[in-house]
Here is the input.
Amino acid sequence: MNAILTAVIPVVIIGLICAVVLVAASIVMAVKEDERIPKVRECLPGANCGACGYAGCDGYAKALVEDGVAANLCVPGGAKTASDIAGVLGIEAGEVKPKVAVVCCSGDCDATEDDVDYRGIETCKAAKLIFGGKGKCGFGCLGFGDCRNVCPEDAICVENGLARIDTRKCIGCGLCAKACPNKLIRLAPAKRHIVVACSSKSKGASTRKACKNGCIACRKCEKACPKDAIHVTGNHAVVDYEACVGCGLCAKECPVGVIKVYK
Amino acid sequence: MTKLIIILLSAVFINNYVLSRFLGICPFLGVSKKLDSATGMSIAVIFVMLMATAVTYPIQFYLLDPNDLGYLQTIVFILVIAALVQLVEIVLKRYIPSLHKSLGVYLPLITTNCAVLGVTILNIDEGYSFLEAMVNSLGSGLGFFLAMVMFSGVRSKLETADIPKAFKGLPITLIAASITSLSFLGFGGVIENLFA
Here is the structure.
């Protein structure tokens, strides 16, 4: 009996000390959480699926309150969850602008050609792993349709070696943008939007050598833009969709016609 | 000094916790799918191994040994490490939120990890001094980091490899892990002879 007690008592004492320290620490060093977070968390279905792009429902609830992200990202919850969250946070669920995915590449088979005869696994991801793909341009569409395979709405097809998105079918979920190993797909406002159909990070001359449709990073669009919404970064023009009003002046100025206006 | 370097290097390469001692296999297989989560997990492991050794070493020599309670080592260590990690998490959340954000998900996962417990117990079994024990923990953590990063590379190649259907998923991962650990056997005897 004594032997058991000499073992049990020290462990119990150590356990108690640890417990007291932890309780004290959690009270003393408590981090004040926004009280809306648990409320938002209750609106979410609790599936922890990660479709919203955050680490589980807790992460999304936190991002909703603290960073003000869109309320309609929860796929399993659907419209009801979005309106519930909107109710808690006092924002309008419908105020989220609809988006469509756009492909920032125009290197179809007419504009560029293959560098190697690729016979590996037919996915973009696999092709990308081997010397950056089969085409001459290492930044362009790989053409195996990883984006098409993940699209839940069948809105993407690969035509002439280039992914095309049917904007009428696209729901703007962004799954294709995540699937593209070259990060060519962006989400743009569903109404009038500008697309720079090139993502090449090479200098203008080598871009044009690889592809007839490439951006030469001349910065004419930058100067033409009245809203300061288009900038040349990484040797190609990138539109800031927050600032862009879709006037299309950049497209008129573009000497190579890589900027396109969609209505 | 030479002894410390030998301890550090042999903990990283020869007695690698994952690939030679087969401790900590759960995070090794579970979190090694992507490079960024593998790095996050390994940094958390290094951190916790060092903390755990710093705390359990005195407990062994000032609390358990003088009272002839050496047989309580395992249970006391688990208890203390678990509480310690929780405490560290609370402290980090309050004072270094950025570090908490990057380690946050992984810290609770390794509270009772066998690699962490293994380091603390082996430090005492080997009869290391406190400094040597800390160096050994650092080396073990670095070894874990190395194994995780290497294996996440292997797994990213596996994702696109043409694998027979029966081997897809965990079976091929286990085979890849065994081949990786086999390659680490090549380090046996190298480190000691470096300083001989």
Notes: The beta strands of chain A are 99-103, 156-159, 162-165, 185-189, 193-196, 230-233, 236-239, 259-262. Chain A touches chain B through 21 residues (CB under 8 Å). The longest strand of chain A covers residues 99-103.
